[in-house]
Design goal:
single chain, globular, alpha+beta, 4-stranded antiparallel sheet
Length: about 400
């Protein structure tokens, strides 16, 4: 029996040795595969098939301008503190959406000494969304970002901004800085929300990135913390961390949950540009003594929104900056026979409809007669994050 016991122990020891050897070989293969992927990216860059690849950190000398369809960059993760190895149970991939927002009410005050304008607004998220897929990389890998238009995006423009200025990338870099640790990822962002439309697409991408990183790396950060740092990225970003419907005051940091009533909308998406800075300068010229009216905003948020109810103090300024938008607004009103509103600082126009059928019919009529992309949508909360193949996590209330 003792001899048999020794024989069995020897066999088990040999199996453990073999398993360990196989594990080491697999790790080597994985490393070789990742290195080969990096080399392939470099080759594709030289052939002009990829926009930007950076091998040693930072952003390339070309500052990563896109070619109209995609922006791609590799950014070295921050080297701070001790190296963190990831738990086997930690998620390797999360998928989330970045919903557009619309200002159902927007009251704006005169410019402050800081250069900012105080606001009171009823903001709500809608079912027009960008898609984000965020994959966790090995701790010693460089982050990679790809930005492209979703095939069903209704108004696509050239993606030509510096990658460092993309709000999703800035949100990633900001959280690394705040936590003093690397968060190496691969991002694929597929956009549907038009650029410069007043629908908060870039801000929503930043908020979605913060949510995704929190879930992917199991950071367990409170939503209040994410909202506080989100303000560094833009005044709309704190609201979009949780989305839904809220009263937003001050310069974007004061949030109060509001009931999200189901509201059917039609968005009209013209090519007209309304640069935010120009719109605010026009607002200052038109209304130098403007005051914020939070009571009016709260009154609108308290009940279901009627077609005539939305208001926007920036509307006249946006129409002054872009006269073509004023003409389009008149033509949309003639077709809809309803009030036509400006979203944020423009250039999106929207109409409040009675039902989904009404919205679908009106969107089709506007697009057919005016040849301007128009979509029917509805107010809705932010979708839950999907972690690997698990059930979506629950969203947090305010």
């Amino acid at each position: 029996a003792r001899g048999r016991d020794v024989e069995i122990r020897a066999l088990l020891s040999n199996k453990r040795i073999k398993i360990t050897a196989i594990k080491h070989e697999l790790l080597k293969i994985i490393g070789v595969a990742e290195d080969a992927t990096e080399q392939l990216s470099i080759v594709r860059l030289k052939r002009g098939e990829s926009c930007c690849v950076k091998r040693s950190g930072g952003v390339s000398a070309s500052d990563c301008h896109g070619n109209g369809t995609i922006l791609q960059v590799r950014v070295k993760s921050l080297r701070m503190g001790s190296v963190r190895r990831y738990s086997l149970t930690m998620a390797s991939l999360v998928r989330t959406t970045a919903p557009a927002k619309v200002n159902l009410a927007l009251s704006v005050g005169a410019c402050l000494s800081s250069g900012m304008h105080p606001i009171a607004s009823c903001m709500t998220t809608v079912r027009l969304e960008d898609d984000l897929e965020v994959k966790r990389l090995a701790h010693d890998r460089m982050s990679r970002f790809a930005i492209e238009w979703h095939p069903d995006a209704r108004r696509q423009t050239e993606i030509n901004w510096p990658i460092r200025k993309d709000l999703a990338v800035r949100a990633h870099m900001l959280l690394e800085e705040k936590l003093s640790r690397p968060l190496p990822i691969q991002l694929r962002l597929r956009k549907r929300i038009p650029v410069g439309s007043g629908l908060g697409g870039g801000s929503s991408n930043a908020a979605a990135m913060l949510r995704a990183l929190d879930a992917l790396f199991e950071l367990r950060l409170r939503s209040e913390y994410l909202e506080s740092i989100a303000l560094e990225l833009g005044s709309d970003v704190p609201f979009l961390v949780r989305g839904g419907c809220a009263i937003v005051e001050g310069t974007g940091g004061a949030l109060e949950a509001a009931t999200q009533h189901e509201t059917h909308l039609v968005f009209v998406l013209p090519e007209v540009q309304c640069p935010t800075a120009e719109v605010y300068r026009a607002f200052d010229a038109l209304r130098s003594d403007a005051r914020v009216d939070p009571a009016r905003v709260r009154m609108l948020a308290a009940s279901r929104v009627a077609p005539h109810a939305p208001f926007n103090d920036l509307a006249d300024a946006a129409l002054a900056v872009a006269p073509a938008l004023a003409e389009l607004r008149t033509r949309v009103a003639q077709i809809s026979e309803l009030p036509v509103h400006v979203s944020g600082s423009g250039s999106t126009l929207f109409v409040v409809c009675d039902s989904a059928v009404h919205a679908d019919t009106l969107a089709a009529a506007i697009e057919m007669r005016l040849h301007v992309p128009s979509i029917a949508t509805v107010t809705a909360p932010t979708r839950a994050i999907e972690v690997d193949d698990e059930e979506p996590s629950t969203t947090l209330p305010y």
